[in-house]
Amino acid sequence: MLKHPQQKYRPAPTVDLPNRRWPSQTITQPPIWLSTDLRDGNQALFEPMNAARKLALFDELVQLGFKEIEVGFPAASEIDFALVRQLIDEKRVPADVTPMVMTQLREDLIDKTLASVKGARRVIVHLYNAIAPVWRQVVFNRSVDEIEQMVAHHISLLRQKTAHYPETEWVLQYSPETFCMAELEVSLRICNTAIRSWDASAQRPMIINLPTTVEVSTANVFADQIEWMHQRLERRQHIILSVHPHNDRGTGIACAEQALLAGAQRVEGCLFGNGERSGNLDLVTLALNLYSQGIHPGLDFSDISRVARIVERCTALPIHPRHPYVGDLVFTAFSGSHQDAIAKGFAAQHPDGYWQVPYLPIDPRDLGRTYDSIVRVNSQSGKGGIAYLLEQDYQIRMPRRMQVEFSAIVQQQADASETELSSHDLRALFEQTYFQPMQHGGVLEYLDHRLHPHADRVEIELSLRLPDGNQPLLRGCGNGPVDATLAALSLPLRIDSYEERSIEQGSGALALAVIEGSSPTIAGSCFGAAQHANITTASIMAVISMAARVIDKSGAEFASLVSMTSSL
Fold it and tell me: What is the architecture of the domain spanning 445-564?
């Protein structure tokens, strides 16, 4: 890169618009949408779509609710010509959908374009030519006067030729290509010439389409350009003002949104932003941005994953996993703090209230997405996400301090495996840690028990298995089964908290018992847990789980364990 790029590159000129109104405006309704996936999007593909894929994508665009669809450049492509004829001859264009065809300013191309759409009910014919200085001077070597004459001649020609097909409603769209790089006075002069040549009126509708053919400025400058034109175009009440943003600076969506504030009524783009160089305006993102502000876009993205798969199949282009709203990971949080906030947001969200879940700008269910992959666990995750997955998928609700303890265990596993842990993996790790300590290197295993209640006390006979294979029968008394189990163990343990809850519904429901205990032999506390159809049995097993984990944390060798349990 150059140390002094100002010697090679110039900043885009700004617009003298001291009384600009667009910054104080608000978008309150959706624009007119035009999809150019079949034309602009198609020409940007490694391998352009064949007829079958184009027809499949056309049908999908209709199903989504697009009322204007650019179907091709029939004068430049026999495939496009055949497709347009097929759509018309087979009557595949619904009555409320208008196809658009594009051509340059040449009489032979105009003739072929009109032949491609003969017999259609309503058609937009899109004429364009570049007007920016470098194109005028370097590419075409024409003056502004010559370009104006060319535009006037060919639009008048189109008007004369379409008069021979009164069965079709003809709409002209004129695009001053490279508008964003042209002098505004030149753009206005050329556009007004087009308007007069077509004789735009209520009976002769017309679209002026202003593109950022190559993005060269910040979005606010483009908005100024649009408002400047919006205020000065002739016969403005008979003109639909449209924009066609590209994404060379990564601000195509911002340009479209600010252009709508500045007076634009219509936008052109591709579903997921496909297009030459960095792409076209991403119509899905713009539409769902509006939706997130309470404005229905008039397009149906209630099954966004299906739309994504169809577009990927037709274009052979993958959609990025972090693509706004549709990417496979866009509603997924790995970060611990994000997961914790999302879980709390779901818990607080009222079914009939405004959507207020942290980190989720819209409800994934509105797009046909589920909550299954919102929280996923890897080495970056924290207690909130882990707790959320276990509760959502297995009804295991951990006390907050247990979440802290278990998250450290999960973190070690994630670091060791260097991969993502599924909710199934978390469940298995939870069982390994708390339900089955003996099977996984623990020091105590519950076998059986009997309770003998007395007036104010409970006596327990507790059968355990030790690491050496012995199965001692322990006895203890307490004010309940948990206290009696603790007494039978005769270990330096204290119960700090106890919780129980059902983790399933119906007659076969299992109970989950969670015990928090401590001992002078370890720092802090330690949790044990167990599940069983009988809550009392689950409680006793949870005490054994906690005791086994305390002994394991204390670092006691087998000989020390035998000493500790000599009274057994």
Answer: 2-Layer Sandwich (3.30)
Task: Give the number of other Cβ atoms within 10 Å of residue 63's Cβ.
Answer: 12
Total-model pTM: 0.74
User: What is the domain partition of the chain in residue ranges?
Assistant: 28-289+308-315, 336-435, 445-564
Supply φ then ψ for residue 501, to 5 degrees: -165, 160
Question: Is the domain covering 28-289+308-315 a CATH 3.20.20.140 domain?
Answer: no
pLDDT at position 125 is: 98
DSSP secondary structure code for residue 318 in this structure: P
Cα 135 to Cα 143, 173, 174, 178, distances in angstroms: 10, 21, 17, 8
Question: Residue 464 phi/psi, 5° resolution?
Answer: -125, 165
Using an 8 Å Cβ cutoff, are 247 and 273 in contact?
A: yes
Go through 383-402 and write b for each residue having 16 or more CB atoms within 10 A of its CB, e for each that does not: bbbbbbbbebebebebeeeb
| Separation of alpha carbons 485 and 517, rounded Å | 13
CB 406 within 8 A of CB 428: no
Residue type, 447: L
Cβ within 8 Å of residue 183, ≥6 positions away? 133
Q: Is the pLDDT of residue 200 over 80?
A: yes
Kindly provide the b/e burial profile for residues 460-489, where b requires at least 16 CB atoms within 10 angstroms of the residue's own CB: bebebebeeeeeeebebebebbbbbbbbbb
* pLDDT given for residue 427 in this prediction: 87
* SS3 state at 87: helix
Radius of gyration of the CA atoms of the chain, in A: 35
Confidence of residue 552 (pLDDT cuts 50, 70, 90): confident
Q: How far apart are CA 153 and CA 150, in angstroms?
A: 5
pLDDT tens digits along 332-353: 766 667 777 888 888 899 988 9
